[in-house]
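During the no-cost extension, the postdoctoral fellow (Dr. R.K.) reprocessed legacy sequence entries with the updated structure-token encoder. One reprocessed record is reproduced below for audit purposes.
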Amino acid sequence: MISEAIKREEYKYYIHDLDANIAAEIFQKILELDKNASPITRQYTVSSLYFDTLDSQDLNEKLDGILKRKKYRMRIYNNDLKTIKLETKNRIGTFISKDSERISTKLANNIINNCFDENENENENCRNILLNLKKNGYRSRVIVEYDREAYYLPFGNIRITLDKNLRTYSSYKNLLNLENKPNSPVFLDNNQILEIKFGEPLPHFIKSILSNFSLYRCSISKYVLSQRYNDSSSQRDHLISPY
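Re-encoded structure tokens follow.
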């Protein structure tokens, strides 16, 4: 079992397709490409299964603008089951921290099927995540998937990502079997998502580059957006306007 802990500040922006392509060409010349990316496409695919309570506590906290909140998810990359992560993402305002545990395929299958019994073979942090999921009545909710182009600087924990082609599998929740399964695009307006994460203030040259683009900063949640096709609560407006 391998644990990872990441803490930094995070800003999110909508960026148009054309600007995203131009920004990517600039970033690849001055930043380091993420080691997990394909050298040809400069991308890798991120697939995450999010969990929520029966009364959608995490979804509602996000929609209500609660500054201190958390999300639970299971994540794979490039549809490769050699690395499966169970994660807790904590947020206080713009500051985030992430606890990540690599888990076995067997445990992942159990969790997908809403079986959160702690296993003595897992480490303490993983058992705590499972306990929280179980005692608070969490259930598998929605799969979120996108193609990520990620760049970083070797100092300051600085990372810039372009998340493209955001899509969802609607009510289908088996993260470990996505091949040939139909999915639906979330954005229909030629927008992508630019994320900037940093542990120290951004260098001036990064700010200067970003100032050349029409960026719309927003409190973006891929989890919330990806429920546009399966959110059925009668107690709130549509997550995204149907018109």
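The mean pLDDT is 90. The helical segments are 17-30, 57-63, 105-112, 124-135, 204-210, 222-225. The remaining legacy entries will be reprocessed before the final report is submitted.
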